[in-house]
Amino acid sequence: MLINRARADTLMDRDGIDAVIASTPVNTYYLSSWATDASWGFGDLALAILPRDHARDAAVLTVEVDMGQPQQGQGTWMIVRGYARKPGLGAGGVQGVLTSEGLPQNHPEAIAQYLREVALDRGRIAFEDRGLGLDVDALLGGTLTVLPARDLLRDMRMVKTPAEMAHMRAAARKTELALQVAAEAVAAGATCAEAERVFWSAAALAGGRPVFLLITPYRAGLGRLPKTATLEPGDMVTFDATAEFAHYTSDIGRTAVIGEPSAEQLRRYNATRLGWQAALPHFRPGALSRDVENAVIASIQDHGNPDFKAAGLHSVGLEHTDHPHPGGGMHAFELVDNMVLSCDLPWIGPDIGKFHFEDIIYLDGGGVEILNDADGRLLACIDGRTVRVD
Fold it and tell me: Which candidate among 50, 79, 89, 219 keeps its CA 20 to 30 Å from the CA of 197?
């Protein structure tokens, strides 16, 4: 089971919620442990209903052609119910029909029917899609109290379960492997555009799903270069990459220098490395993200890079920012134990070079575990290969 049921119970009790209804692929998967083909691959809608009362059955509601497919992945711990699908090809290439006898004709009807079945049709129900909640309430005759659930679900997801951490460790490993291969391509003489294609291939070959790569070549005294530029000794290439495993993501940043780094490049790198390591004790439950960011910046400045100005902290999980951000804003958040975090550490010295470092870390019992290779942040591209700079 992916969901942290104890945390879900606590948050639902806090807000007096009788059930949560997820309707995006990410949250339906989180609640049910089932990444349905209907929602992830075919644009249909699968939903998960999680009652607070454990005596009431939790359920996945999905289109009828998907009902017999919970063997996908690890299946689901919930019961599975269906609703009618629009005409089209069903499972195994069978032609679907306009209606399915005995099934609700759409997902609002399916939700309303299920809430009646589990005696929650007069409850306080939190919907990820508030508009859907209002539609269901109308079908039930206005008996529901409709509450928002989008950030509630993110709040649940902040505390990772062992099953989630297994996926996240795999995602970190596959992201890092793909970054290493892309850097090797740069070392062998590839342009950044060519190395970008290498990353997308390597992540997939490693068993992950590549999601994002920002690869930037930079030349001191000149600035950012085109991705197709031929790289010269002293040029720097930054990588900011995300790859997924089982829909869980990672976020890692690395820097490569063409040839041996200069003394000043190495000094600035060491200030970042040592300052970052010294700041890790600030990553503790109860701390505010903005305070941790300020502590990281101050530590890097104190360790020899007074020009360092910015650190960006965010949680990582099923989303790149796996913590509540009401209204879409990236507000400060409180760190909690067993969450996964990433901290962006970008820096540009116009006459020195461009760095980007980012580790993915796990808060465990008040300690910090770095999930990626903690020593591979800076790479030197020498004689067609990459060499770690310690």
Answer: 219
